[in-house]
Amino acid sequence: MNQVGESLKRALRSGKPVRVGRGINHVDRLDAYVVGIGRKWVMLHTISDAIRLDGYSAVRLRDVAHATRSGWKGADVAHRALILRGEHAQALAAIDLDTTAGLIDTMTKAFPLVGIYIEEIDPDVCYIGRPRGITRKKNLRLQEISPRATWGNTCFKNRTADITRLDAGSGYLNALHAVGGDPPEL
Length: 186
What we know:
By secondary structure, the chain is α+β, with helices and mostly antiparallel strands. It has helices at residues 3-14, 75-84, 100-110, 171-180, and strands spanning 18-22, 30-37, 41-47, 53-60, 64-68, 114-117, 126-134, 139-145, 151-159, 165-168. β7 (126-134) and β8 form a beta hairpin.
């Protein structure tokens, strides 16, 4: 286990938030609790700028450059504020963090919408929608929902190997689902 892996394991055991930096240019740092570590993915219960728990982000383990409290001066305040508000980080039961296909499948079963990032290709874009399966050529089929909460009638395809982050359960994704509802069948 490398140094980053050990830092993630310590964060998981401690139950304290960390700042996660990744080795991909121009991507957001994530302030979060580590709630799961698999062979390929790390699950984070993310903390919003408003110091609220705000959904989950799964990031590729190989992309994590550091996970530390020392680089985040507000970590203790955030942790204490969340506890005072009665918010506690929670692991997600039955989420596969060992394979990308398993992660997509189990997150799709647990949440109505997911956000898919391909940050090495375009760090500024998040594709949001409902996964509709993975092709034999290992392309994810995603039925997208627009920022106006309208569903597309076709699927966006992207190689699963290009996926660097998968989000679910955030306030924004939940709001899109509340307004747009479930997707129409294709």
